[in-house]
Amino acid sequence: MSRSLTGPRKPMQHSSFAQYDIEGPQGRVLRSWCADTPVPGQDDDRFTYLPHERVTRHTDGLGRTTAYHWDARFNIIATVIAEGTPEQIIEQTPTDATGASTGRIDPLGRRTTLRRDARGNLVQIIDAMGHATTLEYNPLDLVTTLRDALGHEWQQEYDSRGHLVQATDPLGRTTRYRHDARGRTVEVIDAKGGSKRLAWDEADRLVAYTDCSGQTTRFAYDVLGQPVLRTDALGQQTRYEYNDAGQLIRVIEPSSPAGPSSQPASPTHLYVWNGEGHLLAYTDPMGQSTRYTYDGMGRPLTRIDAAGRSLTYHYDRAGRLIALDNENHARTHFRYDLRDQLTDEVGFDGRWQRYIYNAAGELTHVIEAGGSDAGPGKVTCFERDALGRLLAKRALGHTGPVEETTYRYDALGRLTQAGNAASHLAFAYDPVGQLLSETQTLQALGNATGQARQKLQRSLSHGYDELGNRTHTRMPDGRTLHWLFYGSGHLHQINIAPAQGPDQPPAAHQVIADMERDALHREVRRSQGALSSRYDWDPAGRLLRHRAALQGSGHVARPGSSNATAIPALERGYAYDAAGQLIARADSLRGRQDFRYDPTGRILASLPAQGSPLARELFAFDPAGNLLDSIPGKDGQPVDTTLGVVGDNRLRFYQDLHFEYDVHGNVTKRTRGNQKAGTQEVLDLTWNADHQLIESNTTRHGVTQATRYAYDPLGRRVAKSDAFGSTHYLWDGDLMVHSQRGARQALYIYEPGSFVPLATVQGAGEEHSTYWYQCDQIGAPLELTDEQGQVAWAADYKVWGEAVMRSVLRTGTDDRPVSARAWGSKPVAPPPPPPIEQPFRFQGQQFDEETGLHYNRFRYYDPVVGRFVSQDPIGLLGESNLFQYASNPADWIDPLGLSNGKSGCPCDCEINPVTGKPKGTLQKLAQKTREADKHNPAINQRTIAVDQDESGNLLAGSSNGFDAVQREMTDKLGIWRVPTSKGLHAEENLMKCVTGLKSVGTSKRDPCGPSEHDCAGQLNSSGIDVDDLH
After folding, report:
1. CATH label, 910-1030, candidates 3.40.50, 3.10.450, 2.40.50, 3.40.140
2. RHS protein conserved region domain: which residues (predicted)?
3. What is the distance in angstroms between the CA of the first residue and the CA of the last residue of the chain?
């Protein structure tokens, strides 16, 4: 006997069905399906039960069968995926006599062993390479000691009620916790003695958080416990409103005192939901709405922006995304194997990529289409150890040599060595994983003429305070940078000490910058040699004003003046609309500039005031965001003249530019100007099998300049060479901190936690000069000032970052600044080249004079057309247009050349009222877990999400499982892992497995939107907080 039940009809009229073997509570589901799916048979699941064989089989709509084998206690001990097919694999999870798991055997036979004590506590984890992590417990079965594979110990102490009162790391740094009578944490005393205090209401909700500096953030809730008001340390209030279903429908932000009169008093964000809890529409503070539609299972079908442009999603019978249509109606196709692993991707431009995995689901090969008769295409092979860590990557293109990179790790999975043909890297760590030193060795490579050079070895060494803040870095030449912090890690001074011999007396440190901060720890004042800069911010952390003047005088010294005659202060002001878009800026050297946007925030016009040296620029785009030639209209609005679309997103013509591409989407040739007029410039680009630019040839006036580029194993550019010599670069993480060409060298210092340059020291020893950066609202340098406050370098920018050098000249007794050049005009007397090295443009970008391109860490950027010259190496995780930089470069940045984001004041002072922890803590934990094996390229196939449930427990989900290094990291962090279901994102696995989810942070910048599974919408619709860093 069987019985079918119809699921409740919801407001969207979606119906789900279930068929049972018998009626009553003992009934088992034989079949479940949804009637309202666009694909017949989609989401149709069938179940077979064989109790005598202890096997349950699940067959999905594609006919794929997964068999679950269980023991007498109903524990699953083996899972057979794709049963009965050539792709069948077996995962074993054996148990002991009590039913507790004793480990895992993956499909390759690699075993992870779990050992337990008599009480069932996990006491040892032994990975597939024999590395052991051990745990010890107190009588309350609480972990007191965790000992890693290298013998480092973490100690924890508890009170009689089991509350954690003290935690000590292997360096002896102790954090203490104080609790009230109800067990709530009311004070956290860090290893430096700083005290953070938390206050709770009778319902155990956080109502106040006071940081180490005494600054308090307060929270208020409604009768249902939903946060309705947040008041920061400056008294600025953010309000939240909900509907009867508990869904967030309105966020009212504090108003900016400097906004234009047309701006609403308080920016308001609106959200509309359907009866199934899916986000239907979001309306920004400017009244522009983005809309979403879904299928019967809640999967996004369309995303329609405020201009009516749409992304469309297509799924197969297993609910897998098989096609994505962009705004130009071009399509990207996806294909999968029986294990739901992506096997083929064909992009909007027809670029084909195939992915091959081993039985454990680890990526082993990437195959790409060829573009030459010399071979079948490009193949990248990945060699792994027993823990799945990458040991070697070998890329073979249709031309050129094999590009090989090798990696080595310690017992904790930390990268210790990496090498390729250009460079070798060695890393050393302290017991808690802080990087102590990095040694970078450049191999003996030839320059552009083939002349060999010697190896060059340089090292950086680092030190940290009790809270993990980096306090000093020793440079290869012996100079030492020092950072001084207050509170939990707010920078208040940077200074540099000269190189010292062992017998030399201590030398005075040069102060690079002293900082003052407001109650939100935002920088409001900075010393810069003889200058002092002041910064004003709006409630959203956007820069409103910047003024730099001689300390105590209100003036800046004039360049080229021996007696440092003063000119008026450098001063800039910024105005934003309610949606946070820059609509105007005024500059004491450049005048006023206004900006216009379309409803989705794409920049349409830059309109300088009369007399400004800046260029008037107008833009038009196709629906997918590709730049098109525009025709001026009224008030700077481009006229839509049906300019067509760039169907494959490969821009081939723009104004006097022509681009050619290889089969992989890399620009191989750019032609600019007019050959007959003698103004033509031809740029030829050569790429290696890793899609890295390795050579450029620039031809001007019949003369060709060749330049070669080399990269280290992490993809950082370490050298470029031409016929006249080589420039070498030294890196600290993703920051280029030193460059040297011959006898000329420069040290670069950045604002904390960012890519914004703060100062540069040119030269070494006693023959050095210090310059300070004066940057705009997105961190692009506008001026450099010297120790006397004179402007030593200045530039004007077009909208997409193309710079023209300018000089500020004295003209008799006239104090007016004079621009040496404006666009479209020839200077009467061109200014001499700047006497200092200043390569930076937009954040993370370095200008290459030989090509006009900007090196942008993982890619190269063309500032003439505002796009990259190769496709995004992270694919659709970045943007649907794989060449796009940003729709609005006045507000957005992309320091790594991977994925853009809003610029603004970095501030880590906020507390998330849902978690009771600093905002972004869960996201940081997710990132730390994912990047435990960060030098393994396979992590690009995996997203990690960390959740805090209503009991305060931390749980982690993954989109593609956890490798051994990540499993060890979660154990170390005290995070439980939930099972991974193929085809689900990390957030979806958490929502599937955990009840009482309160807040989720992901290893990506945000949970994905409707361009994928719309995890952000699913979290919001379920009332789950997103704990991100911005």
Report:
1. 3.40.140
2. 771-803
3. 56
